[in-house]
Amino acid sequence: MPYLTSSQTEWLKWLALITMVIDHVGIVFQQIDPIFLVFRGIGRFSYLAFGFIIALNLSRDNVNLSAYLQWMFITALLSEFCFKAFQPNYDRLNVLFQFFAVVGVIWVYQHRYTFHYLLQGMLYAIFLFISYHADYSLCGLLYCVTCYFFFQLKPGRYKSLTMIGCVLMGFFVNHRMLEDLWGTVLWSFIVLSITFTLFYLFYPQGIRRSAIKIRRMKKIVFYAFYPLHLLIIMTIKHFFIG
After folding, report:
1. What sections of the sequence does the record tag as coiled-coil (predicted)?
2. Looking at the domain assignment, is residue 218 inside a domain?
3. Which of 67, 84, 93, 214 has the least C-beta neighbours within 10 A?
4. CB 58, CB 89: distance < 8 Å
5. Backbone φ, ψ for residue 85 (5° rounding)
């Protein structure tokens, strides 16, 4: 039996998309009112959920990794123009490049017996370089890769240890925000948000208890959502902030 049903995966995908929008609204409007930092706290759900979903998809037997890589790279490349307009002073690549690196690392790992070790080393270096310069940096990559091995392992001690690793990496992914807000009330809110997210993803009474029936989202809609929502938020920002 799969870890999540198709409907549960789609439900989690929608939650991740919605919280991503909330997070990005918070990025834009926190300069007007610090209360929008609460939106950033809610948005902690998004990356952890997306990384979880991607790791789950990569662990499936019928996944087409080459197509996955192509879709992710093309969308990341096209989205970069919107991302730079959205955050012109941010010096990292958009998050889709991070997910592209994740897929690339798993792709190399799955071909470890067919690729020469020198080629493996070169490919790993390329994907690690991209990850380092993308949003969430290497912590984001390690979280997704740890989730991948969590899905690969059978129930037992090692799977439990891997789950603990996923939880720890979930906090490391957000270490910069936690450091910036240390000593404030919002720090506690961020910790609660991350804790709830990880509980919802990994605890048996979380997402796996969901009985909502949702049809699968079309691939083009899912990939187009990221750049389009950035354009919409930037348009709203233009009218309210200028």
Report:
1. none
2. yes
3. 67
4. no
5. -70, -35
* pLDDT digits 0-9 by tens, 17-68: 999 999 999 998 887 788 889 999 999 999 999 999 999 999 988 888 989 9
Q: Check if the beta carbon of residue 19 is closer than 8 Å to that of residue 46.
A: yes
How many angstroms separate the CA atoms of 16 and 49, rounded? 6
Give me the pLDDT at residue 242, please: 63
**Buried/exposed 76-105: b ≥16 CB within 10 Å, e otherwise:** bebbeebbeebbeeeeebbbbbbbbbbbbb
In the chain, how many domains are there? 1
Identity at 232, one-letter amino acid code: I
Per-residue pLDDT tens over the stretch 212-221: 888 888 888 8
H or E segment to which residue 117 belongs? helix 117-133
Residue at 1 is within a domain: no
Residue 90 lies in a domain: yes
Query: Is 171 within a domain?
Result: yes
pLDDT in tens, 80-138: 999 999 998 899 999 999 999 999 999 999 999 998 999 999 999 999 999 999 999 99
Q: Which domain holds residue 184?
A: 6-240
DSSP type of residue 92:
S
Separation between Cα atoms, residue 100 and residue 45, nearest integer Å: 20
